[in-house]
Design goal:
The protein is an alpha/beta fold. It has two domains: 3-45 and 301-399, Alpha-Beta Complex (Aspartate Aminotransferase, domain 1); 51-298, Aspartate Aminotransferase, domain 2, CATH 3.40.640. The chain has helices spanning 3-13, 46-59, 66-69, 75-83, 100-118, 133-146, 158-161, 184-193, 285-294, 303-324, 352-361, 385-399; strands at residues 24-25, 33-34, 43-44, 94-96, 124-128, 149-153, 166-172, 197-201, 220-223, 238-241, 331-332, 344-348, 364-365, 367-369, 373-377. The longest helix has 22 residues, at 303-324. The protein binds pyridoxal-5'-phosphate (PLP).
């Protein structure tokens, strides 16, 4: 047994979240190590039975009665309230539905409208220059629609780019490629000091580390539920609108579900109060209720415990990579300071594509991001320290 195998055993023995692993289906090739939960979270054990009930009984037997009797109609707000503590939000501010892309559009146009309401001269949107592409595309379209100019900036340089013309700023809490964690409290404060509105994309942080939306006064936020929240492929995303902004939130996608009187079937639009205002059309109930079942794994878990384990996992992975992989063979893109690190490690090497193919063939599942990045995501609820040691060892063998 190597020193690092012994250390992994010790760390696993002291892991207070270790038992959570049994709440997930992690079958597959023998000994597979799943380090791709930052792309698609693993299946929680409770989900298949719940989906079978929703389909067989709620839809199959109760049919249309389920909109009221099975709580389908209110699911977007109810599940929003279930996600709220995971991102540091009080109840009544999050609604679940649509994709992250669609919610980025709602949030960003909504933020610009808030800014322009009092100051029509605000005609600039700042967007994270390193963002996941969809946010950049949507920000470009939102800018055209609202008569704004779009200015891509590195998140750390956003404070210097802010000014009287800034309407809204769209940033990622954790960078999808490098795993860099941006400083949400200070960047939000800088945006506010300039009189603008901050919109945060939480796709790679929610469920992996504390976000503190209310504490830091974030204006609007969006996130997906299929990564660290394990909601399943294409599970609905969510939209946060801070309570004191909800009355002024003017959604660019007003639908009958966000109407104050959805069954009034009126031709004129009166927005509903509260988080409901972020809804659009009929919710995707099958996916949404699968997500609700998936969120039960959070019972009895604190985000702080998850963060502590996440950092221990990424620290240990970096230690093992340092020990096993020949120096200079990979370059670590993920920052080493804890306050700048999300829950993934990104390693750059020229042959990352074929290397990841071989890793997956050997049961170590991470992913490849064009053109040269190996990404390894660490989901504290089901990844253990022995997994980490094995992943680094197999990686070293494949890197030669
Ligand atoms: C940071 C980030 N934003 C937005 C998206 C887009 O999400 P969706 O495809 O669900 O709209 C993703 C998808 O992975 C993402 O990682």
């Amino acid at each position: 047994m190597s020193e690092l195998t012994v250390k992994a055993e010790k760390l696993d023995a002291g892991d207070e979240l270790a038992a959570k692993r049994t709440e997930f289906v992690l079958d597959g090739p023998e000994g597979a190590v799943y380090l791709d939960g930052n792309s698609l979270g693993a299946l929680p054990v409770a989900v298949p039975g719940r989906v079978a009930d929703v389909v067989g009984r709620q839809w199959g037997e109760m049919r249309i009665r389920s909109w009221t009797e099975s709580g389908w109609w209110t699911a977007p707000e109810r599940i929003g309230d279930r996600i709220a503590p995971l991102v540091g939000a009080a109840a009544g501010q999050i609604v679940v539905g649509d994709s992250t892309s669609v919610n980025v559009f709602k949030a960003l146009v909504g933020a610009v409208r808030l800014a322009q309401e009092n100051d029509p001269g605000r005609d600039e949107i700042l967007v994270d220059a390193t963002t996941f592409p969809t946010d950049g595309y949507i920000a470009g379209s939102a800018a055209r629609m609202t008569g704004c100019a779009l200015r891509p900036v590195e998140p750390s340089e956003a404070p210097g780019a802010l000014g009287e013309r800034t309407a809204a700023v769209l940033l990622n809490h954790v960078d999808y490629r490098t795993g860099r964690l941006h400083d949400l409290p200070s960047l939000t404060a800088a945006v506010h000091a300039a009189g603008a509105y901050a919109v945060w994309d939480l796709c790679h942080s929610a469920g992996a580390l504390p976000v503190g939306l209310d504490e830091h006064g974030v204006d609007l936020a969006v996130g997906c539920t299929y990564k660290y929240l394990n909601g399943g492929p294409g599970s609905p995303a969510y939209l946060y609108v801070r309570a004191d902004l909800q009355d002024r939130f003017d959604s660019p996608l007003p639908g009958w579900n966000s109407h104050a009187e959805p069954f009034g079937m009126r031709s004129d639009y009166t927005p509903a109060e509260g988080a409901v205002r972020g809804r659009v059309g009929t919710p995707d109930i099958l996916s949404m209720l699968a997500l609700e079942a998936a969120l039960e794994v959070w019972d009895g878990v604190t985000v702080e415990a998850v963060r502590a384990k996440s950092l221990a996992l990424t620290d240990f992975f970096l230690e093992c990579v340092g020990e096993y992989v020949p120096e200079g063979r990979v370059e670590c893109l993920t920052p080493l300071p804890h306050e700048e690190r999300g829950s993934q490690v990104a390693l750059r090497c020229a042959d990352a594509g074929p290397v990841m193919q071989r890793l997956i063939g050997r049961g170590v599942v991470g992913d490849f991001r064009h053109p040269d990045v190996l990404r390894f995501g660490f989901t504290p609820l089901y990844v253990g320290f022995a997994d980490v040691e094995r992943a680094a060892r197999v990686l070293a063998e494949e890197l030669g």
